[in-house]
């Protein structure tokens, strides 16, 4: 006898509502969109294919203990029980902390933890209990620039806004491809871009700024203005200049809510459109056209996403995009950018930045009690130097998702202890001393925590575990709490020794912020409570957390960190580059999503099995390249070989590859290993020049490459 349960997908920001059909044995047999859900009830093929991940025979069922040396690329593992595994891990971590201090224990937070509310909430208290500031994570390859930027501009990392697409008359969309990747840091229902069609239908305009024409940029939705990769900050400065020159600044609003506006305008003045056009590739007339449209639109939003974030100056670009929204009067305004209601409508002040001194230099940990992370590009150096001796990975796979794979592998061999908490034996887990089996999102209770405060339709949804955990899998918060207990540091077991449902207790605490309980939510349709919409203008009273309650239009920390001088230096570098310089950017396809899908056979068939190097026809002609040619892609970090795919969507001077591939040594994921593809991140820059100071965001896109043809044997 089948029955149905409401839940939601936890792969990306929309948290799409789904209905799981469960058979008499308690197994989920199918997933479909929850069409009755107030968010509109849509879900994409990736989420609806999640049973392929959940039921994968390569899923981890039991804790694994390594029996051979980490210098062996293929781990030999034996199954073990939780108690001996956790006792050994706890004792070894405690010994490392006692001998080398708490910072010798580092944590790395993978992207899936952002979609696991109890684990996300458990991570910071665990690291605080350890006493370690060595916090790393996939966010430095994704969007930590936005969080840190919001902290400096608004005073709280939680104050980042989203475009009000339901009401907007104009969208300038930069470095994003929402048709394929949805909206980063904006939880907007996955509606196949209907929201943009409606914007157009009410007479609005959408323009994309991208180095390639993405699937989102169609005649129906809006055109692409091709930008040279990594030059967005200069385009935005030029756009701000043009807006100022047109008289598009809402001086009254800026004076009322802002400070340091003159310093912002002085910065922008360095980069007028006619100075930057040759660097950005966007003609002066197009900058002025966009400036006029933004000034004349009844409401407008500039939105920038991952493509910009990853390209060397992500926080400065975020700052300028926010400032354009602010000075034009569109920030905190219907149809502009808004800060929606959330489960926790609180905006803790960013507690400055903390200096972390190490043998390889001093680093800034932004917002140490918030989402701040140290630069992942420095992790191998910190391990090699002996500063980091143990590493705990929470659903993290840094060998594939960060730069410099070979450097990272060599460094990981030197660790005293490497722990991976995951649902698979990933490429990085293959090197671990212990691989601890976590639950999938169908096996754990949860709420849509991270999406809240960023939702176009604000709601809180609760889900039970839809299926009992298979094998000996446990929720990540329980695993962390048990490790803490074995280390003899603070854990949830101190106050509640017998607690089994650690995740439930964390969810109860989170819901209590709104006076809610799990039982209340469980009794509601789709287990969902719609939150009241808020007046967009309330942003100015709810979300500004500098002591003076103002928006800092030019945070002094930017100049102190040397970001403006660096910006000038990079501009000179770019201006001096040869015209035929190729830059490598990231591209996501509908069949890949970071590390979620590499072992799903149906997503690894035909062209989807590989991640070719895409290059535009003009560049292919110039380099005498054809589809299927083998080339070596060379950067300062090394080279990888790939097959060429000539792709007319690519702008001039732009090459693109999909990351998340390169699994030829991922022996625990058999489909991924048979269809490994190329780890393009292996040649992304590493070290002190490879991250943006202050935000610690990795430079992992818009990277200069050289292409060497590999001749086929006659
Ligand atoms: S859009 Fe994201 S959250 Fe929604 S179903 Fe697809 S993968 Fe899941």
TrEMBL record:
Pfam families: Molybdopterin (PF00384), Molydop_binding (PF01568). It comes from the Bacteria. InterPro entries: Asp_de-COase-like_dom_sf, MoPterin_dinucl-bd_dom, Mopterin_OxRdtase, Mopterin_OxRdtase_4Fe-4S_dom, Mopterin_OxRdtase_prok_CS, Prok_Mopterin_Oxidored. Residues 2-58 form the 4Fe-4S Mo/W bis-MGD-type domain. Keywords: Iron, Iron-sulfur, Metal-binding, Molybdenum, Oxidoreductase. The keyword Oxidoreductase applies. SUPFAM superfamilies: ADC-like, Formate dehydrogenase/DMSO reductase, domains 1-3. Its cofactor is Mo-bis(molybdopterin guanine dinucleotide). One of its GO terms (molecular function) is metal ion binding. Belongs to the prokaryotic molybdopterin-containing oxidoreductase family. This is 4Fe-4S Mo/W bis-MGD-type domain-containing protein. It comes from Rhizorhabdus dicambivorans.
């Amino acid at each position: 006898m089948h029955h149905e349960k409401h839940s939601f997908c936890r792969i990306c920001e929309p948290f799409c509502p789904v209905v799981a059909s469960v058979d008499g044995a308690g197994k989920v047999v199918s997933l479909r969109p929850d069409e009755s859900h107030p968010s509109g009830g849509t879900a994409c093929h990736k989420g609806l294919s999640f049973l392929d991940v959940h039921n994968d025979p390569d899923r981890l069922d039991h804790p694994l203990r390594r029996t051979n040396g980490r210098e062996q690329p293929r781990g030999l593992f034996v199954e073990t029980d939780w108690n001996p595994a956790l006792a050994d891990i706890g004792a070894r971590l405690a010994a490392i902390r006692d001998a080398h201090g708490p910072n010798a224990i580092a944590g790395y937070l993978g992207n899936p933890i952002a979609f696991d509310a109890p684990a996300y909430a458990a991570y910071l208290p665990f690291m605080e209990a350890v006493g370690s500031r060595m916090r790393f994570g996939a966010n430095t390859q994704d969007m930590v620039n936005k969080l840190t930027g919001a902290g400096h501009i608004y005073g709280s990392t939680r104050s980042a806004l989203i475009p009000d697409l339901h009401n907007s008359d104009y969208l300038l969309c930069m470095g994003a491809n929402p048709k394929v990747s949805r909206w980063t840091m904006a939880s907007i229902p996955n509606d196949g871009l209907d929201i943009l069609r409606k914007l157009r239908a009410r007479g609005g305009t959408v323009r994309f700024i991208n180095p390639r024409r993405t699937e989102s940029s169609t005649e129906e939705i809006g055109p692409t203005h091709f930008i040279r990769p990594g030059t967005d900050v200069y385009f935005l400065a030029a756009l701000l200049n043009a807006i100022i020159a047109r008289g598009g600044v809402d001086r009254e609003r800026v004076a009322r809510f802002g400070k340091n506006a003159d310093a912002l305008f002085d910065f922008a003045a360095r980069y007028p459109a006619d100075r930057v056009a040759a660097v950005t590739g966007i003609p002066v007339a197009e900058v002025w056209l966009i400036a006029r449209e933004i000034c004349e639109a009844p409401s407008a939003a500039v939105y920038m996403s991952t493509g910009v974030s990853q390209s060397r100056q992500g926080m400065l670009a975020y700052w300028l995009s926010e400032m354009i929204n602010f000075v034009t009067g569109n920030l905190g305004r219907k149809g502009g950018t808004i800060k929606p209601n959330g489960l926790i409508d609180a905006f803790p002040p960013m507690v400055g930045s903390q200096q972390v001194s190490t043998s390889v230099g001093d680093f800034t940990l932004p917002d140490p009690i918030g989402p701040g992370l140290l630069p992942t590009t420095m992790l191998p150096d910190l391990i090699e130097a002996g500063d980091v001796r143990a590493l705990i990975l929470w659903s993290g796979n840094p060998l594939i998702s960060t730069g410099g794979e070979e450097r990272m592998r060599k460094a990981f061999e030197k660790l005293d202890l490497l722990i991976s908490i995951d649902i698979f034996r990933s490429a990085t887990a293959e090197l671990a001393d212990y691989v601890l089996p976590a639950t999938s999102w169908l096996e754990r209770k949860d709420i849509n925590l991270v999406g809240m405060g960023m939702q176009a339709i604000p709601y809180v949804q609760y889900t039970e575990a839809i299926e009992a955990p298979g094998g000996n899998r446990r929720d990540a918060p329980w695993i962390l709490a048990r490790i803490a207990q074995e280390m003899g540091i603070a854990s949830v077991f101190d106050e509640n020794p017998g607690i089994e449902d650690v995740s439930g207790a964390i969810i109860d605490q989170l819901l209590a912020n709104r006076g809610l309980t799990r039982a209340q939510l469980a009794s509601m349709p789709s287990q969902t409570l719609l939150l009241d919409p808020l007046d967009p203008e309330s942003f100015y009273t709810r979300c500004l957390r500098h002591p003076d309650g103002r928006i800092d239009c030019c945070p002094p920390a930017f100049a102190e960190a040397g970001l403006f001088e660096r910006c000038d230096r990079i501009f000179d570098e770019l201006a001096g580059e040869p015209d035929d310089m190729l830059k490598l950017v990231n591209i996501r396809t509908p069949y890949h999503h970071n590390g979620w899908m590499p072992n799903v056979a149906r997503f690894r068939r035909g062209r989807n099995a590989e991640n070719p190097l895409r290059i535009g026809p003009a560049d292919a002609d110039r380099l005498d390249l054809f589809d299927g040619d083998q080339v070596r892609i060379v950067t300062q970090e090394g080279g990888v070989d790939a097959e060429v795919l000539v792709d007319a969507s690519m702008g001039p001077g732009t090459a693109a590859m999909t990351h998340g591939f390169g699994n030829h040594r991922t022996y625990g994921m058999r489909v991924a290993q048979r269809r490994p593809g190329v780890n393009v991140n292996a040649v992304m820059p590493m070290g002190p020049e490879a991250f943006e100071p202050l935000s610690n965001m990795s430079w992992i896109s818009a990277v200069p490459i050289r292409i060497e043809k590999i001749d086929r044997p006659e």
